[in-house]
């Protein structure tokens, strides 16, 4: 049985990684296994079955979802409403239609929606688009793994919006209304795993501190809910024990398991919840049969069950962390229930002290295993690891599990009769603690120095810290960590620089790196109280490149699509340049010359863009033109003509027809033009008329909407520029 479970799970996990293309070698492996032994052949066959199961479902999900090249369209769609989230200016919900699940938003919505209602809605439907960047967040894959086929916005003014029929408020809807987003965003995140109400600064702190697992409904929450019910009903049945009542344990376990499944339903049945429920169910069945089966078997069975019912779960980081950390806890906690061994003192106090010491050391060991196992997963997925998280979790997990969560459960029960004071106290306690943590943001969020050049060395070192002590590899692991953390990333040669224009959708962000310095030009779109492109794209790339500080952040102008992500980058910024203070300036870094300038006639808005030109030692240059329009272009031609000439041009205003005038293109005279614009954006950028102007001048055009991120290497010597893209097969026409 273990062979089948292990083989199927390994195949499914392998198919969920980027190595899935190696499936072509399967027939050869099967032949070799068949010659080796029947057991080996069975194992490999199960691996192939698990691998095929995940790949088939990935193909079906891609086939069911709206294609990435489909243009947005309008349609009336009927379906049921689920997971309604009310925000300040919009309502978000899932529309379960006959075609599939659609992620829907209703801005300034006057429609009153609740979970379970059935509506006919006028929608503007668009495909789920992914942004293509090195180490960037794969949004489309994440959405497909959750079962979505498209995104949509509601035309709230349409007369065709009709409520077909409603449904009485469900238990889930009732609990959700008690722990509301507006009043209790932190408690809602803790109990229901819904972090939509948290401030962006709180979300960043939680993620960087390595305590985000506390705000996901996982085995900790579900087990506590089940345990509290078991204890409560065991206490109620105490008088019956006198009369030889034999069913107290069975009743308690059944009710506890029922509570666990109810809680899993309330939280939306995410992967950690499913894993916890299956392990609890296995434990119940084994206790019922009074069999002694290792916990690792529960874990393995839960893993296979998740792969069967949710084959795409492991396309996401969360599932890997959930199962990886639980596996490490099982290994770390092993031995806690063993006998104390030896001849213990007859003194009662000494015996209790020994037990407390053993369990305390076991918990520290288990948390260390969880830290190392989580570290391996985070390193592979290019997520920062905070060393402080080990200490924070040692402190927080007991408090959250033994104090805060039980109090919150009691608060929900009390709130049913109308008193929410206990819930408000819990909310205030979490808010106060996070506020205290904000005072130590620099310490808490300082990650290990992991980048492309040392990533897998650090991962190997963490794996070595997980092996049994008997192998005596701990000293070697620490040496490997020290060596890896002192490896510096590759940088451009003196006099040369590298440029990457990120694919940030309808916005702009680019990074220029010299031998010793880095400057970020614009940050992409973002809002003050929400995670933006800086969080999902810029910061992961900086970690990949080993850039721990930005010498300058250069904001061409103040629009949200250029400067909206500045809050996420605050800890890294050395000097911030804005269009409000953009005097003519020239500086040199590593023999690379930077020119900062602005139109003399315009200081605000698009035409007041602060421009930047970067020139290598060999004289090859790039010009960042921001969102200037025709009037500013004419002004620049008149006053700054001698600075405009550049080999590479970041196309003004995302390719709008109000920019890139013929005179401006003649003055710049570029060989390469890069458009930073979102795929299928509703502005129609880049405009065909503008593209035609570039083509008439034989300029090679790249667009982030079609090519993904665009990288250009500028050599310090006279040499051909090296241009690479992240969607090379999808050429822009």
* Beta-strand content estimate: 15-25%
Number of strands: 20
The profile of the biggest β sheet is:
7 strands, mixed
- Report helical residue fraction: 40-55%
Radius of gyration: 29 Å
Q: How are the strands ordered across the major sheet?
A: 11-10-9-8-7-19-20
Mean pLDDT: 83
- Total helical segments: 27
Instruction: Label the structural class.
Output: alpha/beta
Shape descriptor: globular
Uncertain spans:
336-345
Question: How far is the N terminus from the C terminus?
Answer: 55 Å
Could you write a compact summary of the structure shown?
With 733 residues, the chain is of the alpha/beta class.
Which secondary structure elements does this structure contain, and how are they paired or packed?
Blueprint: H1 2-15, H2 26-36, H3 38-64, E1 73-86, E2 90-97, E3 100-107, E4 118-126, H4 139-145, E5 148-154, E6 162-165, H5 171-178, H6 185-192, H7 200-208, H8 219-236, H9 238-241, H10 248-266, H11 271-289, H12 295-309, H13 317-333, H14 348-380, H15 388-415, H16 421-438, H17 441-444, H18 455-464, H19 474-485, E7 497-501, E8 510-513, E9 518-521, H20 533-545, E10 550-554, H21 560-563, H22 566-569, E11 573-577, E12 585-589, E13 592-598, E14 610-615, E15 621-624, H23 630-639, H24 641-644, E16 648-650, H25 662-668, E17 672-675, H26 688-696, E18 700-703, H27 704-707, E19 710-714, E20 722-725
Parallel strand pairs: 3-5, 9-10, 10-11, 15-16, 16-17, 17-18
Antiparallel strand pairs: 1-2, 1-4, 2-3, 4-5, 4-6, 7-8, 7-19, 8-9, 12-13, 13-14, 14-15, 19-20
């Amino acid at each position: 049985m273990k062979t089948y479970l292990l083989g199927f799970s390994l195949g499914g996990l392998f198919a969920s990684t980027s190595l899935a293309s190696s499936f072509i070698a399967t027939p050869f492996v099967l032949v070799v296994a068949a010659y080796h032994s029947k057991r080996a052949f069975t194992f490999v066959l199960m691996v192939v079955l698990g691998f095929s199961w995940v790949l088939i479902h990935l193909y079906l999900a891609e086939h069911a979802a709206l294609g990435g090249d489909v243009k947005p369209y309008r349609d009336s769609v009927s379906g049921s409403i689920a997971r309604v989230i009310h925000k300040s200016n919009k309502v978000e919900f899932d529309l379960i239609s006959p075609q599939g699940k659609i992620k829907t938003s209703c801005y300034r919505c006057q429609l009153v929606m609740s979970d379970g209602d059935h509506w006919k809605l006028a929608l503007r439907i668009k495909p789920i688009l992914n942004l293509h960047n090195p180490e960037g967040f794969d949004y489309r894959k994440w959405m497909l793994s959750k079962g979505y086929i498209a995104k949509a916005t509601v035309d709230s003014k349409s007369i065709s919006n009709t409520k077909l029929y409603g449904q009485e408020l469900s238990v889930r809807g009732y609990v959700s209304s008690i722990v509301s987003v507006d009043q209790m965003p932190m408690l809602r995140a803790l109990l229901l795993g819904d972090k939509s109400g948290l401030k962006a600064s709180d979300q960043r702190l939680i993620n960087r501190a390595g305590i985000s697992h506390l705000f996901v409904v996982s085995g900790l929450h579900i087990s506590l809910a089940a345990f509290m019910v078991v204890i409560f009903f065991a206490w109620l049945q105490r008088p019956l024990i006198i009369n030889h009542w034999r069913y107290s344990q069975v009743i308690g376990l059944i009710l506890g398991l029922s509570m666990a499944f109810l809680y899993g339903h309330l939280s939306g049945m995410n992967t950690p919840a499913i894993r916890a429920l299956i392990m609890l169910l296995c434990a119940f069945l084994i206790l019922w049969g009074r069999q002694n089966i290792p916990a690792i078997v529960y874990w393995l069975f839960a893993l296979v069950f998740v792969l069967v019912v949710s084959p795409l779960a492991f396309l996401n980081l969360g599932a890997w962390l959930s199962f990886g950390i639980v596996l490490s806890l099982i290994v770390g906690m092993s031995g806690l229930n063993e006998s104390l061994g030896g001849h213990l003192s007859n003194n009662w106090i000494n015996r209790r002290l020994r037990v407390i010491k053993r369990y305390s050391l076991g918990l520290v060991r288990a948390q260390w295993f969880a830290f190392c196992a989580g570290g391996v997963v985070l390193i592979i997925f290019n997520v920062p690891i905070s060393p402080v998280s080990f200490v924070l979790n040692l402190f927080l997990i007991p408090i959250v599990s033994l104090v805060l969560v039980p109090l919150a459960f009691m608060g929900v029960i009390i709130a049913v009769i109308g008193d929410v004071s206990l819930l408000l106290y819990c909310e205030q306690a979490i808010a106060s603690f996070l506020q205290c943590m904000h005072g130590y943001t620099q310490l808490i969020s300082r990650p290990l120095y992991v980048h492309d050049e040392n990533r897998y060395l650090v991962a190997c070192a963490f794996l070595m810290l997980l092996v049994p002590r008997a192998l005596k590899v701990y000293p070697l692991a620490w040496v490997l960590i020290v060596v890896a953390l002192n490896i510096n990333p590759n940088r451009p040669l003196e006099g040369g620089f590298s440029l990457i224009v990120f694919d940030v959708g309808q916005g702009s962000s680019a990074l220029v790196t010299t031998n010793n310095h880095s400057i970020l030009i614009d940050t992409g779109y973002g809002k003050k109280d929400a995670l933006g492109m800086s969080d999902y794209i810029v910061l992961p790339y900086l970690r990949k490149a080993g850039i721990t500080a930005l010498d300058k952040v250069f904001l061409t102008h103040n629009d949200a699509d250029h400067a909206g992500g500045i809050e996420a980058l605050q800890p890294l910024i050395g000097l911030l340049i804005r269009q409000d203070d953009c005097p003519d300036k020239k500086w040199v870094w590593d023999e690379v010359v930077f020119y900062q300038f602005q139109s003399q006639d315009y200081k605000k808005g698009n035409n007041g863009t602060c421009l930047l030109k970067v020139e290598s030692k060999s004289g090859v240059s790039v010009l960042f033109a921001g969102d200037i329009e025709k009037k500013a272009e004419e002004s620049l031609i008149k006053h700054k003509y001698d600075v405009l000439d550049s080999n590479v041009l970041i196309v003004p205003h995302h390719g709008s027809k109000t920019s890139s005038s013929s005179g401006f293109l003649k003055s710049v005279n570029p060989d390469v033009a890069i458009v930073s614009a979102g795929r299928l954006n509703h502005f129609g950028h880049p405009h065909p008329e503008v593209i035609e102007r570039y083509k008439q001048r034989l300029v090679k055009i790249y667009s982030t909407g079609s090519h993904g991120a665009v990288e250009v290497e500028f050599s310090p010597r006279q040499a051909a520029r090296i241009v690479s893209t992240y969607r090379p097969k999808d050429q822009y026409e």
